[in-house]
Amino acid sequence: MPLIPEEPQIHESAQGPRATPASGRTAPTPRPVPGPRPAAPSRPGRPGPLRPTPPVQRAPRDVAAKPGPSAPAAPAVASPASVTPQVQLVPASAEGALDAAEEAVDLLLDSGRAPGDVLVITTGEQHPWAAHELSFGEAPYWAQHDAGDDVFYADAAEVARVGVRPVVVVAVNGGPDTVAATALPLARARAAALLIVCGDAQQINAVLGAGV
């Protein structure tokens, strides 16, 4: 008698349905093969998965709700009118004020100050450098001022035209008292860090105040 092969048993754990059902048994209903899910409908304000949008840069949230140490504010840049420089007085006679100013400039440069940081103003006779440069005309003279790469010497009458520099040195080397009275406050407004005044202490204190 020929042997009849046994019908293979189908375990529930077997993957996938059989293509041909065994004789006398009902084939299980095929299950769909897992695959990509259909796109979900988009929600208001949220892009669907099939239409991605570039990320939007958003501001940090809940900053106000979480108290903490605040970042230091950037220092405000002071305008020339609001600058309060340190003031130094170098007592000197009208005849020796220019020499005292020259010595002050030498000390500044020796201490590391850049030449372009320094402006020198005279109330009386012009500094020899200014007189020499002006002999070539005002245009090249003021071009050197605008370049700002060297010590610049100016007459008190031109204080309103010069720009702000870190250090201003004033030589009260003569001229009417009204010139010094006008030039000194303007020179202080042009000094971003330091104002050095060489001249008669009583006259300078009368103009700039007794605290000089």
Topology:
Layout: E1 86-91, H1 97-110, E2 118-122, H2 128-134, H3 138-147, E3 152-155, E4 165-171, H4 177-190, E5 191-199, H5 201-208
Parallel strand pairs: 1-5, 2-3, 2-4, 4-5
Helix pairs in contact: 4-5
Report on this structure:
22% of the residues are buried. The protein has 212 residues and is an alpha/beta fold. Mean pLDDT is 76; it is low at 10-23 and 29-81. The protein has helices spanning 97-110, 128-134, 138-147, 177-190, 201-208; strands at 86-91, 118-122, 152-155, 165-171, 191-199. The radius of gyration is 44 Å and the shape is globular. It has a 5-stranded parallel beta sheet. Helix 4 (177-190) packs across helix 5 (201-208).
Query: How many E-type strands?
Result: 5
- Arithmetic mean of pLDDT: 76
Q: Give the helix tally.
A: 5
Strand/helix succession: EHEHHEEHEH
Shape: globular
Oligomer: single chain
Helical content band: 25-40%
The SS-based structural class is: alpha/beta
Biggest sheet: strands side by side, in what order? 1-5-4-2-3
The stretches of 5 or more residues where confidence is low (pLDDT under 50) are 10-23, 29-81
- Largest sheet: number of strands, sense, barrel closure: 5 strands, parallel
Strand content: 5-15%
